[in-house]
Amino acid sequence: MRVAGTAGGRSAGANLLALRSHNTALVLDLLRRAGTEGISRQELAEGTGLTPQAVSKITARLRERGLAAEAGRRASTGGKPPTVLRLVPEAGHAVGVHADRDELRAVLVDLNGTVAAERRAPLDFAAGAEAVVERVAAEAEALAAEVFPAAAAHGDADGPAPLARVDSLVGVGVALPGPLDHTRGVLHRVTGFPEWDGFALRDALVRRLGVPVAVDKDTNAAALGLAVAGAGDSFVYLHLGTGLGAGLVIGGSVHRGARTGAGEFGHQVIQLDGPPCGCGDRGCLEALCLAAVAHGRTAEAARVLGTGAANLVALLDIDLVLLGGRTVAAAAEEFVAGVSAVLAARARREGLRQEAVPVRTAPGGGRAVAEGAAQLLLGPVFGRGDG
Predict the structure, then answer these.
(1) What global pTM score does this model have?
(2) Which has the higher per-residue pLDDT, 234 or 178?
């Protein structure tokens, strides 16, 4: 299946990667934010700070490659009515995969981040690298086949891999528990699965899938997706599922740290003589929180999570706390109330004049991480994140 508007036999996915530049990203981001109503070239120039001539050259390239199209004309205020342009969402797609310790969720999204298809399947991290890579690849290919059956069905054994035959596909983003090296796509000692230490997951998936692949922690991916969707410029995403971690957005960008290891929120020690944690330490926030959940003490788990959240708020002075993950989803009201109560108590003790930092559940529900994983590929196209 070919996407309308591809030029010279090159796919829209390849076009998007080839077009990556600061100025083009500025224009594409404004086109996406303008929605179906579109935006004029003059407004693009004003919004980006580029000259009208530069905008005209960029939009001409985008139209030639099927990434932008005319959306009509604006009413004239004197002179020729300006032509309005819009993004063509279906000109590009990305697959986002959330590989949790026991479950995989995959989505295929367009340039607007709209989910076109979704799949879920069991996953056993203990089965080893080869099995996990194959399961991720199989689900990603099956997902693309649902949306692009013609492309996925054709080809021979010696030809391109199934995903490489989908013209509009930019690539696959994979999010999973950390710690890991986002830049090199190499896993470290994933809590509970030390045998993964040093495994080059990104390279293995590139070889298997034949398309660009980005790998990041589940919390970072979710935070990126939320930032792209407009959650704010200063917030923390706390993910409580099979583990506990944080994604930090500071100044509108995901903060990964000098060694891409930021956000190991669950392994801050808050009880020196506490229970052992899978990371090898004792009294970690994750161990205490998950133990309370396992014994049905949701209110206690929420207070523990709130203690960690309050530490982050005090340390970073962020504007918003977003909660996600399957454990939070199972008792969302209790977790929001419990974390909010701890933050409010801390604010009162410190005599803060303003209200406590708000706490909400993250939009996107159970697929927030998978949607964010897709943005690992699409975000940089629009100047959001570094992929």
Answers:
(1) 0.90
(2) 234
